[in-house]
Amino acid sequence: HFGVSYADEHEAPLFAKATQLVLMLGSMQGSLDYAEFIKKEGKQKKLTPQEWNMTYVDKIDSEAIAFIESDMPDKARWRKRTSEIFTTLRKLGGLYNSVTTSQAPTGSISQLMRVACTGVEPYFSMIQRRKVKDVDDSWKEFILVPLEFYQYEDEKIEWVAEQTAHKIEPYQQIRILEACQAFNHTAVSKTINLPADTTVSDIKKILQYARKSNLKGITMFRDSSMEGVLSDHGGKVEATCEFCDMDVRSGSTYKFRGPAPLYITANKGGQGHVREVFLNTTKSGSTLHGMSEALGRVISVALQHDYRLVGKIARTLEDISSDGAWISASLGRVYSIPAALAKVLDKSGEGEVEQDPEPYTEPSSYASCPACGKISLRRSGGCNQCVSCGYSSC
Q1: Is residue 312 domain-resident?
Q2: Does residue 237 lie within any of the structural domains?
Q3: 110 by DSSP, 3-state: which?
Q4: DSSP string spanning 288-357?
């Protein structure tokens, strides 16, 4: 369009330099000198960050004009247009959407490289554990202790330990971002870590504060909002279960006649959904009794987590057969204890489809990990991370 050949050893570099000038109001050499410029002139003149930028723009603007007047290729007949662009950019203070600098998500990369640095991201913990898949498809686990690389005194280690992610207020984390993003065209990869008791109103205020701080983007994560990701809790957070707090539970018990007497009880919660099952057969202490009791406990845990699993569990058990048969007056003949339990779950769960018309979805939002193959990959911040093997897409 401008009559410039990219194969020309003289014109191509000049044209590229002109394009760079238009994008960021500064030559590449000027960009490299930016930090030194601020260090010297900014401190001497006691300028604010905004004044640093405008003073630097003036410096680069003079370089650009000199370049246009002397080095601009004659074949690129757009001097006037370029001058108009420079004039507009000076009024606007730069191009907001021009991207020539960026920053990778250093948290994930630094762990993979075993580097005790996370960029502007505060340490989540002073001890980090990670699994990495080697070139021979073997998995290696390592523990990274950031401060082991430095000769810290004990009192200094205690001070640094108090500066981890959840010890720094969200607004202070935003101020860190504000300082770093001033010289980065894209958004800096940094997660704002929020405590577990953060409310919707708090998040709204944080977003408004981030906007006033001129952040290009912000990612927030509330502690304990998802299972299987990092948490600052020393112990496991107990899940709340309304059904678990019920002192009186209604249900039905079904009797089956067979090689051994079998009683199956299905209890329901306040909304009429099956939330608990018991299996009792033969005398206590026998292998069959222990296996039956274990089956009931495991299924009860699943139903208390999500009652909609009742149909899926019944379909899984109904085709299992054994060398005996059990008969119920109301449910008919079955050929195994798991099949008898499937009959009870179907009978006790009748009518739940009308009460809960939503199709069943897996209670977990995990996906298949491309590294280890387990269903343990989920979104965390701006990356997909496997909570089983440590794989990260970043």
Answers
A1: yes
A2: no
A3: helix
A4: HHHHHHHHHHHHHHHHHH-GGGHHHHHHHHTT---S--EEETTTEEESSHHHHHHHHHHHHTTTHHHH--
- By CB atoms closer than 10 A (0-12, 13-18, 19+), residue 198 is middle
Q: Which of 32, 57, 92 is the last residue of a domain?
A: 92
279, 292 Cβ separation under 8 angstroms: yes
C-alpha dihedral over 286, 292, 295, 296, to 10 degrees?
A: -120
DSSP label of 146: G
As beta bridge partners, residue 130 has 142
Q: What is the pLDDT of residue 129?
A: 63
Using CA atoms, how far apart are residues 147 and 154, in angstroms rounded to an integer? 11
Residue 6 lies in a domain: no
Instruction: Tell whether 149 and 211 lie within a shared domain.
Output: yes
User: Which residues, 6+ apart, have CB-to-CB distance to 199 below 8 Å?
Assistant: none
Number of domains in the chain: 4
What range does the domain containing 59 cover?
11-92
Q: What is the pLDDT of residue 294?
A: 92
Residue in 193, 181, 183 with CA at minimum distance from that of residue 217: 181
State the pairing for strand pair 191-194/219-222: parallel
- Helices 79-92/11-24 angle, 10° precision: 30
Q: Report the distance separating Cα 388 and Cα 228, nearest Å.
A: 9
Query: Does 117 reside within a domain?
Result: yes
pLDDT per residue over 347-364, tens digit each? 887 644 434 434 444 444
Look at residue 77 and give its three-state secondary structure. Answer: coil
The CA distance from 260 to 323, in Å, is: 12
pLDDT (tens digit per residue) in 69-106: 665 555 454 455 566 656 666 665 555 455 656 665 55
Torsions phi, psi of 178, nearest 5? -60, -40
What residues of the chain score a pLDDT lower than 70? 1-137, 139-163, 182-187, 189, 226-246, 350-366, 372-373, 375, 380-382
